[in-house]
Amino acid sequence: MADTARIDKWLWAARIFKTRSLAADACKNSRVTINGVNVKPSHMVKAGETVSVKKPPVIYSFRILQCIEQRVGAKLIPNIYENVTDPKQYEILEMSRISGFVDRARGTGRPTKKERRSLDAFIDPALFGFDDDDDNEDYDNY
Questions:
Q1: Radius of gyration of the chain, Cα coordinates, nearest whole angstrom
Q2: Which pLDDT tens digit goes with each residue over 76-127?
Q3: Nearby residues of 50 by Cβ (< 8 Å), 6 or more positions away
Q4: How far apart are CA 37 and CA 34, in angstroms?
Q5: pLDDT tens sequence across 8-19
Q6: Rounded to an integer, what distance in angstroms lies between the CA atom of residue 88 and that of residue 92?
Q7: How far apart are CA 32 and CA 9, in angstroms?
Q8: Where do the DSSP E strands lie in the chain?
């Protein structure tokens, strides 16, 4: 194994990005940092460095164990990097999955009737801060 590797090749080989061009684009768009510093796709990484990758809404962090530039099988990934992502990031990811229908992806069209009802049920209590039962009690007092 090599002592160093290009960051875009490493991100692709470690299966963090599906293609090398996606990894290079992430580097160019300041979504990849090494030890807190934005890097270009040609940046050389060494074992022991910490790579942070922004994939909204989460920021994943990985500690490099081996520098590789050739893609390896999925079973060998634990030898390549250690996932040191903060557990709070996974909570954010889970919350976005649960409430995923609130922020619709572009091009998915209008919500169906079922999705709209789910959306209304999710948003309405939070908007007003009270239940329907509270309204009836207020009117009874007048």
A1: 22
A2: 999 999 989 888 888 887 777 776 555 566 667 787 888 888 877 776 665 5
A3: 34, 35, 61, 62, 63, 64, 84
A4: 5
A5: 999 999 999 999
A6: 6
A7: 13
A8: 4-6, 32-34, 37-38, 44-46, 50-55, 58-64, 81-83
